[in-house]
Design goal:
The chain folds into two domains: 260 residues, no CATH class; 122 residues, Conserved hypothetical protein from pyrococcus furiosus pfu- 392566-001, domain 2 (2-Layer Sandwich), CATH 3.30.1760. It is built from 13 helices and 21 strands.
C-alpha cells in the first residue's frame, strides 16, 4: 500500500514566485539555462543548473558546481526567496495547457515503496544520470525538484481537490511557454489525515515522468537509512517530493524519431522494403498525423506516407509487443535500417511531440536527417499495464506535457 506524508515545504513568497520557478533541469542544456536565467539572481537555475554561475564550458559534473548548488540554496533561504511553512502540509498543483487543466497532489512519497515496487516504473534508468542527481540530492539534503506520479483515479480524492480548488490559489500565473500554473495549500488537519489514509489504501503509484530523479531520491534516502544506526523509519530522509495526478487526467503525447540515413537504400528501395510489413500509402506534401495504433507517418524526400502495420506482424497479447515503438523498432529501425540500440546509436534522434510534426519536416528538409517517423501516442492504460506486468518500455516511448515547474515547493531532510 502507498505510504505518503505531508511535509514542511520551502516555497517562494507570492510576489517572487515567477522569478524563482523554472523548467526542470533535464529539459534544457546549460546554455539555454544561462539565457533563461539572464540577470535574474532569484532563478532556480542557480540551484538546479549551477554551472551557469561559472564560465561557459565548465563541466556540470565538477565538484565545485555541486558545491555552488549548496551555496546558492543556502542563499535563497537566507535572503527569504524561499521560506519554510510552519507545519506539515499537502499542496495542490494544477497545470493548464490548451484550455485543459490537470490537478495533482503534492506529497512526500516513501523511499521503501520505491525499493519494494509499490512505486512502479516503466522505464530503465542510466546509472550516470542517476549518479548526477544523487550527488545533487545528497549534497543539498533536499529534493529541489518533484517527480511526476500517476495513481488510479479515486472519487474521494477528486472531491477533496475539487473543494479546495474553489478557494483562491496561493500562486496563479502563466509561464513564458503559455502554460498556466496554479497552486493551493491544504492546511486543514482532518483533510490532511484523510488524504494520507486514501493513499494508504492504494496498491500502487506509477512513475509517469522523472525516473532518474525518483531513483536518485530513493537511493539517497536508502543511503541515509543504512548510515543511521538509530534508524526508525519516520525520519524525513525516508520520503521524497512527488506530484501525484489521477491517471484519467493525464495525456501522453507522441515521441517521434528522425534518422540520418536509409542504411544504403535509396528512397524507392526503402519504401519497397516497408511493403513487406506495412500498407504504404503516399499522402503528399501536407503533414500527415497517425490515425490510430499501428498506423505511422513517414516523411522522406518532401512526401508524407501512411504506414499501417499488417496483421500478424505484432503480438496484441504482449504488452510490449503491441506498442508502436516496438513495432517500428523491430520492423523499420532494426530490420531495414540496421539501428539496433536506440540508446546508443548515433544515426537516430528523438523529437518530443510538443514540438509538432513541423519540426520533423524541418530536420529532414534541412538535410540534417534523411527521414522522420511519427508515432501514435501511448495511452495511460498501456503504461499502467506494462508497469503492472513488471515490464519495461523501450527507450523514448512516452512524453508528458506540460512539464512540472520546479521551485513551487521544495522538500528538505
Amino acid at each position: 500500500m502507498a505510504k505518503v506524508k505531508p511535509f514542511r515545504g520551502w516555497r517562494p513568497p507570492v510576489d517572487l514566485v515567477e522569478q524563482v520557478v523554472s523548467r526542470p533541469y533535464d529539459v534544457l542544456n546549460s546554455e539555454e539555462a544561462r539565457q533563461e536565467a539572464g540577470d535574474n539572481e532569484k532563478s532556480l537555475y542557480h540551484i538546479i543548473k549551477p554551472e551557469i554561475d561559472f564560465p561557459q564550458g565548465t563541466d556540470e559534473h565538477d565538484p565545485k558546481v555541486y558545491d555552488k548548488a549548496v551555496e546558492n540554496f543556502r542563499k535563497f533561504r537566507e535572503k527569504g526567496w524561499l521560506k519554510q511553512d510552519d507545519k506539515e502540509l499537502y499542496y495542490i498543483y494544477a497545470q493548464t495547457m490548451n484550455g485543459r487543466t490537470q490537478y495533482g497532489l503534492v506529497v512526500c512519497a516513501n523511499v521503501e515503496d520505491y525499493m519494494t515496487g509499490v512505486i512502479k516504473k516503466h522505464e530503465l534508468t542510466r546509472r550516470d544520470k542517476e549518479e548526477d542527481r544523487m550527488k545533487h540530492v545528497r549534497i543539498n539534503s533536499a529534493n529541489i525538484e518533484p517527480v511526476f506520479f500517476a495513481y488510479p483515479a479515486q472519487a474521494e480524492l477528486d472531491a477533496i481537490v475539487s473543494e479546495w480548488t474553489k478557494k483562491q490559489p496561493e500562486y496563479d500565473f502563466v509561464a513564458p511557454d503559455g502554460f498556466g500554473h496554479h497552486f493551493w495549500v491544504i492546511d486543514d488537519d482532518r483533510t490532511i489525515a484523510r488524504i494520507t489514509a486514501i493513499f494508504a489504501a492504494m496498491p500502487s503509484l506509477y512513475i509517469a515522468d522523472g525516473h532518474h530523479r525518483t531513483a536518485a531520491a530513493a537511493l539517497v534516502g536508502n543511503e541515509r537509512r543504512l548510515a543511521n544506526p538509530h534508524h526508525r523509519g519516520d525520519e524525513e530522509y525516508n520520503y521524497f517530493l512527488a506530484v501525484c495526478f489521477p491517471d484519467n487526467q493525464l495525456n501522453i503525447i507522441d515521441y517521434n524519431r528522425v534518422v540520418k540515413d536509409l542504411n544504403g537504400l535509396d528512397t524507392q528501395a526503402f519504401l519497397k522494403a516497408l511493403e513487406a510489413d506495412f500498407e504504404v500509402e503516399c499522402q503528399g506534401k501536407e503533414i500527415y498525423h497517425p490515425k490510430a495504433l499501428h498506423n505511422f507517418a513517414l516523411y522522406v524526400e518532401g512526401q508524407w506516407y501512411s504506414l499501417t502495420a499488417k496483421p500478424g506482424r505484432y503480438d496484441d497479447q504482449d504488452p510490449i509487443g503491441v506498442l508502436d515503438v516496438t513495432i517500428s523498432s523491430n520492423l523499420i529501425l532494426d530490420k531495414i535500417l540496421g539501428i539496433k540500440d536506440l540508446r546508443s546509436d548515433k544515426r537516430i534522434d528523438f523529437v518530443g511531440g510538443i514540438r509538432g510534426l513541423g519540426e520533423l519536416v524541418r530536420r529532414v528538409d534541412s538535410g540534417e536527417m534523411k527521414a522522420a517517423l511519427a508515432l501514435y501516442p501511448v495511452s495511460m492504460k498501456q503504461l499502467i499495464d506494462i508497469a503492472d506486468s513488471g515490464n519495461i518500455m523501450p527507450p523514448k516511448t512516452t512524453w508528458f506535457e506540460p512539464k512540472l515547474r520546479s521551485g513551487l515547493v521544495i522538500h528538505t531532510f
